Amino acid sequence: MNQSTHLFEQSKIRIPGGVNSPVRAFNGVGGTPLFIHKAEGPYLYDADDTQYIDYVGSWGAAIVGHAHPDVIAAITQQLPLGLSYGAPCEAELRLVEMIQSFMPQLEKIRMVNSGTEATMTAIRLARGITGKNKIIKFEGCYHGHADALLVKAGSGALTLGVPSSAGVPHGVAADTLVATYNQLDSVTAVCEAHAHDIAAIIVEPVAGNMNLVMPTPEFLHGLRAVCDHYGALLIIDEVMTGFRVAAGGAQAHFHVRADLTTLGKVIGGGLPVGAIGGKALLMDQLAPLGPVYQAGTLSGNPIAMTAGYATLALLKQPGIYEHLTQMTTQLVTGLKTLADAYHVPCQAQSVGGMFGIYFTSLNAPPCSFQEVMQSNVAHFQRFFHAMLTEGIYFAPSAFEAGFVSCGHTPHVIEATLRAAEKVFAKSNETLSQ
């Protein structure tokens, strides 16, 4: 028995499902999850010290690569000064200033502890500002596990949302309306049905939790116009896309403006963190200045602030985003070329340091939740395990985006493509059983 299997069996006795976040359980692909004991640059090392090229990157957070020396040095310098103060510290201010240097539209920023906390706060703030109750989210988009956001579409286009998790009250779900990603008509239909009670629309500007789905050219700008028309706030959830698809996030890439922006992952440099930002007039409605309450014991803790600052400082280096985009493009282009060569139905696409792979007979990458759901999950499962055997670690789900880091080099990408060619070459037995 290898160490991962042993540790998983022990963990299942003491931890629900043996994991502390569901997708880690490998339920989407079958088998036993890897237990990781070390990560460095573009590599993971499991409990048996087997090396893998990593395309999960702590779900996008490890944009400069794992354990980057500059980030480790910054944390090491901070550690003797204390782990948490429960009081303001200069590191908070410096990280906020650094974020604003990338995203100047965020006039004020409140640091929190996770992406879930950031989106939860954004929803509460939008309701407090507008005095309205209902929010609109999109089927297939994920914004954390707060009650109001664990809602799926009802049976008809204009039905109220229904809980997608036990423990979510139907009354909470009733105030969350669900529209179809990339279909503005579905948004306007919902708004017309609830015209006087829409507090906000919340959206992943690039969907990354139903695999990667790009917005159509008119979608995000259309949401901006709908919000302006109905007096609602547009919340752009950049927890995943922030600093990953472009230096200024998806808003800079697609030239769209949010009222409130949520951030996470990259801004913590691998440590737990989240943030919400926007115009000062809106952000000043948060306590202690305004009536919308939010608090957190560990918010702005100096270790996470220091790691985030060091990470963003690295992203200021010339050519860093060009390298990130080039490596990601090389990966998806190579995978698509190989799949075509071996007659494996597949699509792939990327933006910045995010990518999606889809085993599908569609003629183009999916642009909606419905199209993503047509993917051949069984083919992905076999691909995942075959690549894992070759030392390549993709996300253990057909419905998660992948991530490339600045630590991925042409050599690393080439090694990945050599592994993929072996897998695709065996496609008749490996992928088409």
Q: Can you walk me through this structure?
A:
By secondary structure, this protein is an alpha/beta fold. The chain has two domains: 3-67 and 319-430, Alpha-Beta Complex (Aspartate Aminotransferase, domain 1), CATH 3.90.1150.10; 69-315, Aspartate Aminotransferase, domain 2 (3-Layer(aba) Sandwich), CATH 3.40.640. The chain is 37% helix and 15% strand. The chain has 15 helices and 16 strands. It has helices at 3-14, 69-78, 90-102, 115-130, 170-173, 184-193, 219-230, 249-254, 280-283, 302-315, 320-341, 369-372, 377-389, 410-425, 427-430, and strands spanning 36-40, 43-46, 51-54, 108-112, 134-138, 151-152, 162-163, 176-179, 198-203, 233-237, 260-264, 274-278, 347-351, 354-358, 392-393, 402-403. A seven-stranded mixed beta sheet has the order 4-12-11-10-9-5-8, sandwiched between helices. α2 (69-78) packs antiparallel against α10 (302-315), α6 (184-193) runs parallel beside α7 (219-230) and α11 packs parallel to α14 (410-425).
Q: Could you give the topology of this structure?
A:
Blueprint: H1 3-14, E1 36-40, E2 43-46, E3 51-54, H2 69-78, H3 90-102, E4 108-112, H4 115-130, E5 134-138, E6 151-152, E7 162-163, H5 170-173, E8 176-179, H6 184-193, E9 198-203, H7 219-230, E10 233-237, H8 249-254, E11 260-264, E12 274-278, H9 280-283, H10 302-315, H11 320-341, E13 347-351, E14 354-358, H12 369-372, H13 377-389, E15 392-393, E16 402-403, H14 410-425, H15 427-430
Parallel strand pairs: 3-15, 5-8, 5-9, 9-10, 10-11
Antiparallel strand pairs: 1-2, 2-3, 4-12, 6-7, 11-12, 13-14, 14-16
Helix pairs in contact: 2-10, 3-10, 6-7, 11-14
